[in-house]
Write a structure and sequence with these properties.
This is ATP-dependent DNA helicase RecG. It is an enzyme of class 5 (isomerase). The chain contains 30 helices and 20 strands. It is α/β, with parallel strands linked by helices. The structure holds adenosine-5'-diphosphate and magnesium ion (MG). Residues 393, 395-396, 399, 423, 425-431, 551, 575, 680, 682, 684, 711 line the site of adenosine-5'-diphosphate (ADP).
Length: 822
């Protein structure tokens, strides 16, 4: 695939991500969305006319002004740009194609008719507008990024509903998905007396066994006018026979169907015509304003083209892993006859998603191996020997094992290390990194240690500088707030090789930073950095060894597969003497008083406490206010006898430092903070962690916060304050009450919120899978990995399987589109 094509995909993906996120001008690794689009559109393809080029620049200009646009203006611009780009792409690819003749309107869109109508014409690359005359609808489809028949076929439903079961009214049972056939007794459509914006539609049906009332609740002004309400009513005349499908639910008015799909039949006994009633029905993820039926009907029209899909997977491989053919899988993922078909289709397509990703990873790994030569560092030497002597504790077995794994990598000159260390909060990852750093220095190389926040970088510096002083080794800290003179000093010491270790934030990857001989890059909390940022750090040396660390550990098979090109080590043991942290959910005044009393008792024994407030992006100001006010309330009315520090993201680095230092030195007993404290702050004397509005945090984040206490040898407490009555929220928090195991918690978190939210999809370079679930589909994932390994072992560059190679290029690029904004 050439550069040109890649750009189109990136651009379209950026636009669709922005639409998904609600037009917030999302931040990529390097650029904001609007900047990225503006820059990209500033460079139109060469083979277009001057007129078109001017248009490109016009659109780019509009994005330059994106930040001043209202949300709806942004939306219009994004949609308009997607269409524009699509048309431009078609132009550049087929410059001589005449405009498409208008196809006649198709009366019905059920699958048999669609088949006959398009018998000769339909093909995979045909534009959708040619296949199905949907008037304004093709616009809707473009909004979803769907332009060709192939696009639509690969637009998998996110769910299916089983409407295949016809049930009589008297036999309805809550929780089942069914179809009911009945006669309309009455039909009303009116505005809610309480909420003008809400229109209520009410249909009463009977069958020989009973009576059923169905409601639909329609939000929005467009349903509110009497004309549209009358039209709605008239669709269901009294006496007509209808089929209604949906999930049976029991509410206080009796039994009903939740969000029913209703279709009027020609008469009793008439076959159910609708494409959705009485069968397994696909449900598609939609963008606002795209009617669900539009997508369903269009899919039905496009499905006949599925038979042209060639299968890139060799037959032996399909047989070996029990996979159905691609064309069958595609047909059945949309409209399966039954659940079994659906299961087979899904399994095949999930396999594909994992398989191509693995294939891509493995190939990249091959390429790296061929290209790079690392430096080899010996673990034996004076520096490490002296360090062993000054270390105030012995390594845990897990730490020792991981250090050995790292030394093994560092000793090999032929390939640089690329290792991820996973370990729960407090498992002692830093010290493991220090061993690697010292090995590099011992062999005459420099090391860089990058952390995601100033607070964390400073803490690492503080700890390491003690040790480094004892070892008579210089070390410096470089962050956004390092003074210019100091900064220059650091730059020159780095460049001439005097400085063996630089700790810092993103400041490390900026341009003036040049190493004399960078041999090792350590990246803490790696999931907080983008692919590109990591790459830039590595670019500061010649194939340096890389050690990344994460405190959001995930199951090993998953980590191996996800980070397909990394080796993974686990520190699965905590340093000795740690006590479990007593964790409890709390709500209401009485509970709060008990929590405050406990804080008093702990402080009386010389301990300290954290009180954390969430900082949610949308209401950053409000939350800051909450933290600031709470600080005031606590200092004045609750704990006037104690010193209470305040820490939040809007403070200058110096202020933050001062607050943290006073807490670290026990000059203040309580620190009230927003989540800037989250990452790795280490004050072993603190024993109480109070998290306000705990339900607003993800489990992994809560676990990290909790990990700020329990670092010393005395027993610690974590209180999850939440007044939420939401059952799921309380279930989530209960996981923390029950478990202290980071692996278990991250897996639970993935189940609740999805892996993307937990691992930071776009940040970690983790792909968006259309179907596959990293939690549910681990077995298929393992198979796909195995299959990919076999293929690569036999045919490294896929020279003998051109169709696989081609498919890989398309799929891998698309999947890894996660880092598009770079
Ligand atoms: P994390 O894995 O969360 O980054 P740190 O590296 O910050 O953990 O270590 C947490 C604390 O445990 C630090 O105070 C560190 O000095 C201490 N520590 C690390 N390893 C050991 C050990 N083997 N024995 C005792 N304490 C240790
Ligand atoms: Mg850490």
């Amino acid at each position: 695939m050439n550069e040109q094509t890649l750009d189109w995909i990136r651009l379209q993906k950026a636009l669709s991500v922005e639409a998904e996120r609600g037009y917030i001008d999302i931040m990529g690794n390097q650029y904001r969305f609007s900047e990225f689009i503006c820059l990209s559109l500033g460079k139109p393809p060469k083979n277009i006319s001057t007129g078109d080029k001017i248009q490109w620049h016009d659109v780019a200009q509009k994005f330059a002004n994106y930040s001043n646009l209202s949300s709806s203006q942004r939306k219009q611009l994004v949609i308009g740009t997607r269409n524009f780009l699509h048309k431009q792409k078609v132009l550049t690819e087929t410059p001589s194609t005449p405009p498409n003749p208008k196809t006649p309107r198709t009366a019905a869109l059920n699958s048999s008719q669609a088949k006959t109508y398009f018998k000769q014409e339909i093909s995979l690359d045909m534009p959708l507008s040619k296949v199905i005359d949907i008037g304004r609808r093709s616009n809707y489809l473009e909004r979803l990024g769907l332009y060709t028949v192939r696009d639509l076929l690969f637009y998998y439903p996110r769910d299916h509903l089983d409407y295949a079961r016809q049930v009589q009214i008297t036999h309805l049972e809550a929780g089942e998905t069914v179809t009911v056939i009945g006669t309309v007794k009455s039909c009303k459509c009116f505005s809610s007396p309480k909420n003008k914006n809400l229109t209520i539609f009410e249909l009463v049906l009977t069958d020989p066994t009973g009576r059923l009332k169905l409601n639909r609740f329609l939000m929005g002004a467009r349903f509110g006018n009497p004309g549209s309400q009358a039209r709605y009513r008239n669709q269901y005349p009294v006496g007509s026979i209808v089929a209604a499908s949906g999930l049976v639910k029991q509410n206080k008015y009796g039994i009903t169907l939740d969000k029913p799909e209703i279709e009027v039949l020609d008469g009793a006994g008439a076959s159910i015509e609708s494409i959705k009633i009485g069968r397994v029905l696909p449900v598609y993820a939609l963008t606002e304003g795209v009617p669900a039926d539009t997508v369903r009907k269009s899919v039905v029209a496009a499905l006949p083209a599925a038979k042209y899909l060639a299968d890139p997977l060799p037959r032996e491989l399909r047989n070996q892993y029990g996979l159905v053919k691609l064309k069958n899988a595609i047909a059945c993922i949309h409209y399966p006859e039954n659940w079994e078909e659906l299961t087979h289709a899904r399994r095949r397509l999930v396999f594909d998603e994992f398989f191509y990703l693995q294939l891509g990873f493995l190939q990249r790994r091959q390429e790296l191996k061929q290209k790079q030569k690392g430096a080899s560092f010996a673990p034996e030497g004076k520096i490490i020997e002296s360090f062993n002597n000054i270390l105030p504790f012995t390594l845990t077995n897990a730490q020792q094992r991981v250090v050995n794994e790292i030394f093994g990598d560092l000793g090999k000159a032929d390939t640089p290390m690329n290792r991820l260390v996973q370990g729960d909060v407090g498992s002692g990852k830093t010290i493991v990194a220090v061993y690697a750093i010292l090995a590099a220095i011992q062999s005459g190389y420099q090391a860089a240690f990058m952390a995601p926040t100033e607070v964390l970088a400073e803490q690492h510096y503080r700890k390491l500088v003690e040790w480094f002083n004892l070892l008579h080794l210089p070390v410096e800290l470089l962050t956004g707030s390092t003074k210019t003179a100091k900064r220059r000093d650091i730059h020159s010491q780095l460049a001439n090789g005097e400085l063996p270790l630089l700790i810092g934030t993103h400041a490390l990857i900026q341009d003036p930073v040049q190493f004399h001989k960078l041999g090792l890059a350590v990246i803490d909390e790696q999931h907080r950095f983008g692919v590109q940022q990591r790459a830039r750090l590595l670019g500061k040396g010649k194939s340096p060894h890389v050690l990344t660390m994460t405190a959001t550990p995930i199951p090993r098979t998953l980590a191996l597969t996800l980070h397909g090109d990394l080796d993974v080590s686990q520190i699965d043991e905590l340093p000795p003497g740690r006590q479990p942290i007593k964790t409890m959910m709390k709500k209401g005044k009485a509970d709060r008083k008990k929590v405050y009393d406990l804080i008093r008792r702990e402080i009386a024994q010389g301990r300290q406490a954290y009180i954390i407030f969430p900082l949610v992006e949308e209401s950053e100001k409000l939350d800051l206010k909450a933290a600031t006010e709470e600080h005031k309330r606590l200092s004045e009315s609750i704990f006037p006898e104690f010193q209470i520090a305040l820490l939040h993201g809007r403070m200058s680095s110096a202020e933050k430092d001062a607050a943290l230092n006073s807490f670290r030195d026990n000059k203040c007993q309580i620190i009230v903070s927003t989540t800037v404290i989250e990452v790795g702050v280490d004050v072993p004397n603190a024993t109480v962690m109070v998290i306000e509005h705990a339900d607003r945090f993800g489990l992994s984040q809560l676990h990290q916060l909790r990990g700020r206490v329990g670092r010393g040898s005395s027993s610690s407490f974590c209180f999850l304050m939440s007044s939420s009555k939401n059952v799921e929220a309380r279930q989530r928090l209960a996981v923390l009450e029950e478990s202290q195991d980071g692996f278990f918690i991250s897996e639970a978190d993935m189940r609740f919120r999805g892996p993307g939210a937990v691992l930071g999809t776009r940040q970690s370079g983790l792909p968006d899978f259309a179907l596959a679930s990293l939690v549910e589909d681990q077995e298929v994932l393992t198979l796909a990995r195995e299959a990919a390994e076999k293929i690569i072992a036999a045919d490294k560059m896929l020279d003998n399987s051109p169709s696989l190679k081609q498919e890989l290029e398309i799929r891998y690029r698309r999947l890894m589109g996660g880092d598009i904004l770079n």
